[in-house]
């Protein structure tokens, strides 16, 4: 079986990138493959906000990512630089910068491109959405 790194470059809503990445990840895991991590980059970091409130008749993509992470122990990693410039702030970053609020969900961790490169070295494939 293969080991994948999934890179998500699109937001949870407005494009199909996140949904396609999520569906691919779910199918890969069901087929017995391993997801080393999901790396959210560029506008993909919007997938990590706890302040998204989709309508009750819409699919909650962000919740689905959290469920995938919890069920399969898949790390969800935000590019910290991309996140901070888009106002996506973790509790630690808020504390370090004197901010009273943060919006990154607990299922997501902040990381850098170095983590992506390290993951790629141990993966069989990088799949970008």
Write the layout of secondary structure elements.
Blueprint: E1 3-8, H1 17-30, E2 34-40, H2 61-72, E3 76-79, H3 80-85, H4 91-96, E4 108-111, H5 113-122, E5 125-128
Parallel strand pairs: 1-2, 1-5, 2-3, 3-4
Helix pairs in contact: 1-2
Question: Could you explain the architecture of this structure?
Answer:
GO terms for molecular function: sulfur carrier activity; sulfurtransferase activity. This protein has 129 residues and is of the alpha/beta class. It is 37% helix and 19% strand. A 5-stranded parallel sheet has the order 4-3-2-1-5, with helices on both faces. It is globular and about 45 Å long. The mean pLDDT is 96. The chain contains 5 helices and 5 strands. Helix 1 runs parallel beside helix 2.
Poorly predicted segments: none
SS strand fraction: 15-25%
SSE pattern, N- to C-terminal: EHEHEHHEHE
Q: What characterizes the major β-sheet?
A: 5 strands, parallel
Count of helical segments? Answer: 5
Task: Tell me, briefly, the overall form.
Answer: globular
- The CA-CA distance between the termini, in Å, is 21 Å
Give the overall average pLDDT: 96
User: Order of strands in the sheet with the most strands?
Assistant: 4-3-2-1-5
Number of strands: 5
InterPro entries: DsrEFH-like, Sulphur_relay_DsrE/F-like, Sulphur_relay_TusD/DsrE
Family: Belongs to the DsrE/TusD family.
GO molecular function: sulfur carrier activity; sulfurtransferase activity
Protein name: Sulfurtransferase complex subunit TusD
